[in-house]
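Input record (one chain):
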Amino acid sequence: MLDSMGLKSIDDLFSDIPEEVCRSDPLPLRGPQSEEEIWADAQRLLSVNIDLDSRPSFLSAGLARNFVPTMVSMLATRGEFLTSYTPYQPEVSQGMLQAMWEFQTMVSELVGLPVSNVSMYDASTAAAEAITCAVRVKGRKATQKGVVYVSQFVPPHRLSVIENYTQGVGIELRTLEHNMDGRVNLEAAAAAAGSCAVYVEQPNAFGELDEGITQLKQIIGEKTALIVGVGIGLIVDNYFNTKPFGLIIFFILGALAGFLNVYRVMRRIENE
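The corresponding structure, as predicted from the sequence alone:
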């Protein structure tokens, strides 16, 4: 390489760097270490941090500690998910797409639906997709065209994803006011009547179950979709101490309910 550049040594390559900024003495680094020594040093440095498992955590607003079963990592890294669609390495994303297709096909056959969809990667994306779907379905009869009310206590990272999905497609996001205790302000919610959708979360940002949400649908009316981001599996697990079975069971039930709701919407659109 030096010959092709017309240079004789590596020093010639860096000759343009002023000498006053060049380091002449070696870096103050430790000598070579064994793997065991490196691991011990890493553990010592990491122990300075306080993790969520070592102390009581009062984080909320979407940042509460979530339990992820070890089975998830084991299943996600199985060889069946690796599809060698390139000649030089297996690609996990293609295998995951195939697994998702197999799963939604199986769900369609089990519940008798003509179509099912497994495109929601996380809670933020699921919320954004639900909002855009509600605008498409409810937008024609809504009196507030393209308007969606979003809870003021939606976590910032989730709201950012929702904004990214809705900007540029004619969807206007407005804030749904809450009381000081974090519960929905039902009087202020009357302003959302006639909009395309209202998005709230249960439990709320303070980790409480808002009973006012049960009255919210009556206030906003039938022409407005009510979207509720729910962590019911976590609620059941915390109450009955059944982690992680409640989360898994209600995840499956929620998926099936979502597929059934999509089917009903499609049938209603066909009839109209």
